[in-house]
Amino acid sequence: MEALPLTIRANADKAIVWENDRLYLLDQRILPTEEVYIELKTALETAHAIRDMVVRGAPAIGITAAFGVVLAARTCFADSPERWRELILADMEILAASRPTAVNLFWALARMKKLFSSIGANNPEPRLLQEAMLIHQEDVAANRALGALGAELFEGQTSVITHCNAGALATGGYGTALGVIRSAYSVGKIEMVFADETRPWMQGSRLTAWELAQDQIPVTLLTDGAAASRMAQGGIGWIIVGSDRIAANGDVANKIGTYNLAVAAKYHGVKVLVAAPTSTIDMSVASGAEIPIEFRKASEILKWGGQQVAASGVDAWNPVFDVTPAALVDAIVTEKGVVLSPNSKKMADLMGV
Ligand code: MRU
């Protein structure tokens, strides 16, 4: 992959850029010290960018995959205008295999595939591009809507803890957890955002702190292990997180450590808010036990910046998501509405099934 320091200025609304028929991703692996866009020319490069964390966050992965299908259509149609539908499926499988947990990836690929039969003999690229752009725009609109709904749950001003990065960088723009935080802050309901560092990729210190600092929203970093102690000190009204996949019973898969937060929150009487668009809800999985959890390389824990930090010869267990049972969740906030104390019946009502 070619790294292009382009003239596009990084800002918190531009993790994914489609410009002049080209796809660019802000390289989130090197934020906040460098703001560099990478151009992706093929579906394979797009899949690698997702796997390697150039782009991350469930909705952003889905949107990127949709643009990856546009790139796939371009090459497949050029190779064989008659057989592009067959050829593109192999590229879509590679995109689908890039990361397993965020359901938005599979949701976006399915939405793109649904269009194939209606495209006829024409070049598929324009129609698929229109859909990818719509997926992107709808995600931003969903985040703004759920942000406003989430902010309404705050009774007065309070401090909150967030985990990982569920902001503009993780979505089409505005953010899910950070969408709620942005909306609540704008009406004076947030005193301080405590952001967990989020080992081992440090999405909290690198990305969430970067976004909030850019918006001049007060943010204080915590090591992941400090969150329960911070709750014990008082003044924390809510834990606010995003999600990679929500099961039909309201169980929530999110960045590893979310479950710890929810358990500690219950003990301290702190409420847990999960902010996610309905594209993150997977009604085909009955409970969190069925959600595939991604495991990544032990070296992500054993090394730091390429340097060995762990004792030689030890192994590491590195699941990168966990499941928080619905019983520990006070509110799931989506663009279609808020589900308090989620369960299967309430989730089915929300989703209209
Ligand atoms: O491994 P990542 O950085 O892709 O994990 C991201 C998260 O866990 C986010 O909290 C989740 O995708 C919600 S993003 C709006």
CATH superfamily of the largest domain: Translation initiation factor eif-2b, domain 2
Helix content: 25-40%
Percent of residues in beta strands:
15-25%
CATH architecture label name of the largest domain? 3-Layer(aba) Sandwich
SS class: alpha/beta
Span between N and C termini?
Answer: 43 Å
Give me the oligomer status. single chain
Q: Fill in the CATH topology of the largest domain.
A: Rossmann fold
The averaged pLDDT comes out at: 95
Number of helices: 11
The CATH class of the largest domain: Alpha Beta
Record field, number of beta strands: 17
Spatial arrangement of strands, main beta sheet = 7-6-5-8-11-16-17
Q: Please state the CA-atom Rg, rounded to the nearest Å.
A: 20 Å
Q: Tell me about the biggest sheet? A: 7 strands, mixed
- The residue ranges in which pLDDT falls below 50 over 5 or more consecutive positions are none
Element-by-element helix/strand order? EEEEHHHHHEHEHEHEEEHEEHEEEEEH
Number of domains: 2
Principal-axis shape equals globular
List the helices and strands and how they pair.
Blueprint: E1 2-4, E2 16-19, E3 22-26, E4 37-40, H1 43-51, H2 58-79, H3 84-96, H4 103-113, H5 125-151, E5 158-162, H6 177-186, E6 190-196, H7 203-214, E7 219-222, H8 227-233, E8 236-241, E9 245-247, E10 252-255, H9 258-268, E11 271-275, E12 281-282, H10 299-302, E13 303-304, E14 307-308, E15 321-324, E16 331-334, E17 337-340, H11 344-351
Parallel strand pairs: 5-6, 5-8, 6-7, 8-11, 9-12, 11-16
Antiparallel strand pairs: 1-4, 2-3, 3-4, 9-10, 10-15, 13-14, 16-17
Helix pairs in contact: 1-2, 1-3, 2-3, 2-4, 2-5, 5-6, 8-9
This protein binds 5-S-methyl-1-O-phosphono-5-thio-D-ribulose.
